[in-house]
Amino acid sequence: MRLLSLPINDDLLEVHNSMWSGVESVYFNGQLASSGFSVFGRHHYFTVDAADGDGIDKFRVEISMTWSGIVVDVFRNDRCLLASSKTPITRVDSRLLPEGDTKPFHLKRAEREEPRPLDDEFFV
Predict the structure, then answer these.
(1) What pLDDT score does 110 carry?
(2) In whole angstroms, what is the distance from residue 59 CA to residue 26 CA?
(3) How far is Cα 8 from Cα 55, in angstroms, rounded to an integer?
(4) What region does 79 belong to: left with phi over 0, alpha with psi -120 to 50, or beta?
(5) Measuring CA to CA, how many Å separate 28 from each of 9, 10, 37, 43, 100?
């Protein structure tokens, strides 16, 4: 049974799981990238030539069983591409930032309009 189809730029990562045999399979562009037996989930690791032709991309697919069912997390070069509810990515994590920089980004807020003064007609 296919659990996940994740388009990544021009590539497609698919995760399959057989509840009967316990075999998990990860496919990348239709080619088997990793496979193994699991009852409660496992981690799958594989590498792919980088799309730009310079180096390799390291993938990690984490499949696990939770009370809400089967969840899947996908990482490329230690950057999260798909996070389940169990993966804490809402905080600044040095593993997810380039070059291990732990400084948070600075975001500018949109300018707000000054509130208009209320007319005398407002108060009845």
Answers:
(1) 62
(2) 11
(3) 17
(4) beta
(5) 12, 11, 19, 15, 28
The share of the chain scoring above pLDDT 70, in percent, equals 68
Cα 75 to chain centroid distance, Å, stands at 6
Q: HSE (CB half, 13 Å, CA atoms) of 95?
A: 9
Distance, CA of 75 to CA of 81 (rounded, Å): 5
Residue 98 DSSP symbol: G
CA distances (Å), 77 to each of 2, 5, 69, 96, 121, in order?
24, 19, 26, 9, 62
Q: Report the candidate in 57, 67, 79 with the shortest Cα–Cα distance to residue 10.
A: 57
The residue type found at 4 is: L
Tokens 């389940």, located at residue: 84
Which of 67 and 114 is assigned the larger pLDDT? 67
d(CA 45, CA 102): 26
